[in-house]
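Async update (no meeting this week)

Hi team, since we skipped the sync, here's where things stand on the single-chain job. The sequence we agreed to prioritize is pasted below, unchanged from the tracker. I ran it this morning and attached the output directly underneath so nobody has to dig for it. Comments welcome in thread, and please keep replies under the output.
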Amino acid sequence: MTIRDLIPILDAKVLCGETDLDQEVRSACGSDLMSDVLAFVKDKAILITGLTNVHVMRTAEMLDIHCVIFARGKIPPEDVLEEAREIGIVVLATEYTNYTTCGLLYEAGIRGSSLRSGA
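Output:
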């Protein structure tokens, strides 16, 4: 599946990265805690979050995440979008909650990490 395929599933808007929508995605992580993202993200992942600060983009860059989806109708400030443009991250926004966004992507075949937290 590609990032472009996610747009109709989530009724998402592309906020930046329009030229990079054909990148493949295999898994997803939905979290507002970047420490959890660091612990559980896999290859070719999507990050779903409602957190709209620049730390999201820096975390995504560290993990080679090529798409961040802001849920709950959140739109990040321009400095966050500029950071995403500079490092080449596609940014989408959807009105769905984190939970529903993750569910829709799961139904479409995108899975999360198979790791358990051990808690």
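Quick observations from my side:
Residues 15 and 91 are 5 Å apart (CA to CA).
Strands lie at 13-16, 27-30, 45-49, 67-70, 90-93.
Reply here if anything looks off.
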